[in-house]
Amino acid sequence: MPVDSKRICGPEITKNPYNFLINGNEKGELIINGKRRDGRKPDQARPLFLRPGLISQAKGSAYIEQNHTKVICAVYGPREVIRKEDFSMKGQITCEFKFATFSCKKKRGHQQDSEEKDYSVQLLEALEPAVQLDKFPKSQVNLYLTVLQNDGSALAASITCASLALAHAGIEMFDLVVGSSVRIHGNEILVDPCEEEEFHSNTNIGVDEGGVVLGLMPSINQISALTSKGELNFDTTSQAVKTCIQNCQKVYPVLQNCLVNSLKEKD
Amino acid sequence: MATSTICVPGQRILRTDDDHISGNGTYTRNGYIYSTLVGYVFTQTNDDGKTIVEVRSSKTQNVVPSEDDIVTARVTNVNARFCKCSILSIGKTKLQEPFRGTLRKEDVRATEKDKVEMYKCFRPGDIIAAQVLSLGDAQSYLLSTSENELGVVIATSETGGTMVPISWCKMQCTKTLSEEFRKVAKVQPQFIEYSS
C-alpha cells in the first residue's frame, strides 16, 4: 500500500518514541547469575503451543505460539501456475512471509520489506527438500505466513509452523521440518532467544556474537536450512548447530502428537 | 484392511521385504517404508500375495491432472483450430480450483480428422468428458475426445433449453426442438452417478 501523503505529521519538536524504547531494551547483560532476563536457563526453550487447521478456507493451516511469538500459516493448492513460466515436471512452492504491521515494536509496512523477502527465501529453502515436488507436476503450492506478534525466533517458529500446515493440507512430504534458533553470546548459547536477546548486527559487535537458525528433518536426520549471523568461530558454530539439532529433536514429538490428535479429533 | 495406526509425514512404518510394497502415501528409503501423509495405515493384499502398505488421509486427496485421466471440463472458448476448457474434476474427484485445458481440432474425433469443424462440435458452456493426452505446455493441459465415450455430455441450446442427444453428432433442444451439432459422448451408464 502506498504511504498516505495526506496524513498530518506531528509538530516539528516531537521526538520519535522509538528512540526511547529500543535503546533502553538492548543494554544490559543477557545473563545474570546463570539466568536469562525472563528467568529461563540458557538451554531452556519457551513453552510451545501448536494447533493445525484454524483457517477454514485454506487447504491447510497451522498456528504456533511460543510465549509472545505468534505465527499463523496458510497453505493453498496444488493449484495452477498462473504466471507464464517454463514447463516443469516438478511442482513449485511459493512462500510469502510477512510481519503483521502491529507485530513488532516498530511498525511494519504493508508491503514486504527486504528482511521479510529474505525470510521468505530462507523458509522456501528449508521446506523444499521435505516436500515431494514430483507429486504435483506443473502446479504450485502457495504458503502464506504471518507473524502476529514477534518476540524473537520468528523464522524458526515459521519453519515449524509451515511444515505443520503442509502436513495438515495433505501435501506429501518426506518428513516434517522443525526449526530452531540460538543466540551466541561469548561462551554462552541461548536457546530460543526472545526479541531482546536476538542478535542485531548494528549493536552486537564482536567475535562470538551472533545467531544461528536451523531447519531439521528429524526422522531422516538431515538439515534442510542453516543460516548464521554475526562473527562466529567454527567451534562455536558447530556447537550451536548441535544445540539446535537437540532442540529440534525435542520439539519433533510435540509436532507428531499435535497432528495425531488433530486427526483423532476429526473422527 | 484398515488398522487404527495413525501416521505423520516421515514416520517409519515398517521394513520393506519381499512381501511388503509401499503404496500411496508412502515412500521407501534405506529399506524402510515411511509415511508421507497424516492418516491411517491401510494394508491390502494384491494378486501376487504381496501386501501393499498405504496411508490414506481424511482430507480430500490432492489431485492434479495426469496423462490418461478422464476429466470433466467446461468449454470456455471455441475457435476454428482449438477450444479452451477449464477442467472441473478429475475422475470422481472435484477440483477446488479449475485447471486450464486445450482441445485441438485434430483430437476431437478418431476418424475423418480433417473434416472436423470446431463450431459443429463444441459451444462455450458445454460440459464435456475428455481424456488428458499430455501435460501440454506451460499454460494448459492437452485434452482429447477421440473416443465414442468422450465428448459433450451436457449442453444447452441457443435458446437456453437443455438438449438431449439424438445422434453421435447432433443434439436436440427439449423446448424448441431445434437441432444443433455437437460431438456427442456416448455416456456409459456405469459411470453415471446421481447426487442426492
Short description:
Chain A: Belongs to the RNase PH family. Chain A is of the alpha+beta class.
Structural description of this entry:
Chain A: Its main location: cytoplasm. Chain A: It is found in: Cytoplasm; Nucleus, Nucleolus. Chain A: Non-catalytic component of the RNA exosome complex which has 3'->5' exoribonuclease activity and participates in a multitude of cellular RNA processing and degradation events. Chain A is of the alpha+beta class and 267 residues long. Chain A has one domain: GHMP Kinase, N-terminal domain (Ribosomal Protein S5, domain 2). In chain A, the strands form three sheets. Chain A has a five-stranded mixed β-sheet with strand order 3-4-5-7-6. In chain A, strands 9-8-10-11 form a four-stranded antiparallel β-sheet, with helices on both faces. A two-stranded antiparallel ribbon of chain A has the order 1-2. In chain A, helix 2 crosses helix 3. Chain A is globular and about 55 Å long. Chain A starts with 16 loop residues before the first helix and ends with a helix. The mean pLDDT of chain A is 89. Chain B is mainly β and 196 residues long. Chain B folds into two domains: 55 residues, OB fold (Dihydrolipoamide Acetyltransferase, E2P); 119 residues, Nucleic acid-binding proteins (OB fold (Dihydrolipoamide Acetyltransferase, E2P)). Chain B has a five-stranded mixed barrel. In chain B, strands 1-6-7-3 form a four-stranded mixed β-sheet, with no helix packed on it. Chain B is elongated and about 65 Å long. The two termini of chain B are 29 Å apart. The model of chain B has no long low-confidence stretch (mean pLDDT 89). At the A-B interface, strand 5 and helix 4 of A face strand 10 of B.
